[in-house]
Input
Amino acid sequence: MSNTYLLNYANEVAYREDHRRKSNGWQFKDILSKCLNTTNENNEWCGYWQRKVVHQEVIWQ
Output
């Protein structure tokens, strides 16, 4: 596990914990809708396999 992506892994674990009681179908639809509504502008996962430099930003809502 790389420190570069540690915040992303922590966010995934937090999401799973927050929504663990929801059905698999609900979780799938939620993640799918988030993926389809995401733009490629400043998308940190573009170039993930090429070890692109990641500039992490935390947005609190």
